[in-house]
Specification:
The protein is of the alpha/beta class. Helix content is 30%, strand content 31%. The strands form three sheets. Strands 1, 2, 4, 6, 7 and 9 form a six-stranded mixed beta sheet that branches. Strands 3-11-10 form a three-stranded mixed beta sheet. The protein starts with a helix and ends with a strand. Keywords: Signal.
Length: 186
């Protein structure tokens, strides 16, 4: 008998928070209904009634309205000047200034004159890579440290800049400033 009473007391204790949550969710709904009813009493036009109903809906708009596709829409993407991998040629024409949260696409073109790579683990950790496209093959990596070209070709990287700072992509083993691309994420 005591076991039965103990079990009943435990079940009653577990049911109390559930009933309290149900009562708490019913009260705001009742208040919203009462508020909507008060608003409808003073309104006669259908347009005004629609406005009263709209007051009880919640719209989850953020700071930016990116539309149906969100930040990854083509309208939000910025194409950057391409990087060039060629023997003795500068990698980039200048420094890139990116905004944190911006969606970007950059092409890396290799002419095949030499086996070259671009390395920059810090840069790749400061961005979120959507995809890398090589010869119409889309790669969605979890992480990248470097990209190496054995022959002529193009790789296109689409990414979202995340962490502010100054980052470089450079040809491994080179020391010249022309053999690197500088990205400033603000």
């Amino acid at each position: 008998m005591t076991r039965l009473l103990t079990i009943l007391m435990i079940l009653a204790g577990l049911a109390a928070p559930v009933s309290a949550q149900e009562a708490a969710t019913e009260e705001p709904a009742a208040e919203a209904t009462a508020t909507a009813a008060e608003e409808d009493e003073g309104e006669e036009d259908e347009e005004e009634e629609e406005a009263g109903d709209a007051a009880t809906t919640y719209d989850a708009k953020g700071k930016f309205d990116y539309g149906f596709s969100g930040i990854m829409a083509r309208d939000n993407r910025t194409d950057l000047a391409p990087l060039t991998l060629a023997s003795g040629q500068p990698v980039a024409g200048g420094a890139y200034t990116l905004k944190s949260g911006g969606f970007y696409r950059i092409a890396i073109n290799a002419d095949g004159s030499q086996e070259l790579a671009l390395s920059g683990g810090d840069f790749f950790r400061a961005i979120w890579i959507n995809e890398i496209v090589i010869n119409d093959i889309e790669i969605r990596p979890m992480g990248v440290h470097s990209i190496e070209f054995d022959n002529a070709g193009t790789a296109v990287i689409s990414f979202v800049a995340v962490t502010p700072g100054r980052y470089t992509l450079s040809v491994p083993g080179s020391s010249g400033e022309t053999q690197q691309a500088v990205f400033n994420i603000q």
